[in-house]
Specification:
The protein is mainly alpha-helical. Helix content is about 70%, strand content about 0%. The relative contact order is 0.16.
Length: about 325
């Protein structure tokens, strides 16, 4: 094993260890925010497949998460299902959602696809608000949490470790997909769908697969969120939340897995940090996002990566860029 191959796993383990240590030293409020960050990370990692890699605008993330959360909640309460069985059932829910939204995306683009996905989210929210089985506006309560033989989460903060485990797994899987031939094919569709199709890539099938991956991520995240909160209501799955997920994608860096995590952290944590400004905190948050969109249009991760390479070249005296003919 080379030094280069060792660096990334070591850094990843160190980051996870730092998160766990900081979590144990934090108060309940900070711990609850960290749990929401992990939940948002999974959602943005899924959204990256369809919006970041294939370039299809998807504003249905909140609706997909609502389907996962309410299905999991109903199965574990009224249905009496084991929480782990209900969680694995979210794979089927995500598959159905991906196919249901993927096929219309083959005929719709841009503004029209965005409207379609917004409509889907609103339909799910209205159904959750008016159906008796979902608890209506009151919501669904007493949802069971995932547990194991050696770990039973009693408090909300205990559930953090389960969220962390699934976030790590989702990140590794997303990293594998993005850096595989499927990830390259997704990017080819985003950059030039005509050239991709001429090269033998099945554009229609890959778009549906991207929607399916995004839907599975969202459904599983919704189920984990339901177990984390134990209580859900329709106000947690609005179009505004879907817009926030797109903002996380753009601020962190579209199409990059580390960028997804950075964006989820900033958009989730920054409003909490600005709450000291009281009524003006939301204005300040939107201003920060606008400034970043103007001056850092590619997201923070490409910027961090670029300056890290420059710093590496300065420290080691080696240039990572070679110029032919000189």
């Amino acid at each position: 094993m080379t030094k280069k191959s060792i660096v990334q796993p070591v850094l990843a383990v160190a980051l996870v260890a730092a998160v766990v240590v900081y979590f144990n030293l934090s108060n309940d409020y900070i711990q609850s925010v960290m749990g929401l960050i992990l939940y948002n990370c999974i959602l943005v990692l899924g959204l990256n497949f369809i919006t970041g890699l294939t370039g299809q605008m998807n504003l249905a993330t909140a609706g997909m998460a609502a389907m996962g959360a309410y299905t999991y909640g109903i199965l574990t309460t009224a249905g009496g299902w084991n929480p782990w069985v209900a969680l694995f059932a979210m794979l089927s829910v995500g598959l159905a959602l991906g196919l249901g939204l993927g096929y219309p995306s083959l005929r719709l683009k841009g503004f029209y696809l965005a409207l379609t996905t917004i409509g889907f989210s609103e339909i799910i929210r209205l159904l959750a608000t008016n159906l008796q089985i979902t608890g209506g506006v009151i919501g669904l309560n007493h949802i069971e949490r995932l547990s194991t033989f050696f770990f039973v989460p009693v408090r909300m903060t205990d559930y953090f470790y389960i969220l962390l485990f699934f976030t790590i797994f989702a990140t590794l899987f997303a990293w594998k997909i993005v850096n595989s031939k499927f990830g390259r094919a997704f990017k080819a569709i985003r950059d030039n769908p005509e050239a991709a199709e001429a090269s033998g890539i099945n554009v229609a099938r890959l778009k549906i697969q991207a929607f399916t991956l995004a839907a599975i991520y969202a459904a599983v995240a919704g189920a984990l969120y339901a177990g984390y909160m134990v209580y859900i209501n329709p106000t947690a799955f609005t179009v505004l939340h879907s817009q926030n997920y797109v903002a996380m994608l753009m601020i962190g860096g579209i199409g990059t897995v580390p960028g997804n995590i950075i964006g989820a952290f900033i958009v989730t944590a920054l409003p909490e940090m600005l709450r000291g400004f009281q009524d003006y905190y939301w204005i300040m948050f939107c201003t920060v996002c606008l400034v970043m969109a103007i001056f850092v249009p590619d997201g923070l991760y490409p910027l961090i990566k670029r300056y890290s390479l420059k710093l590496y070249a300065v420290v080691t005296g080696k240039s990572r860029v070679t110029t032919k003919g000189r």
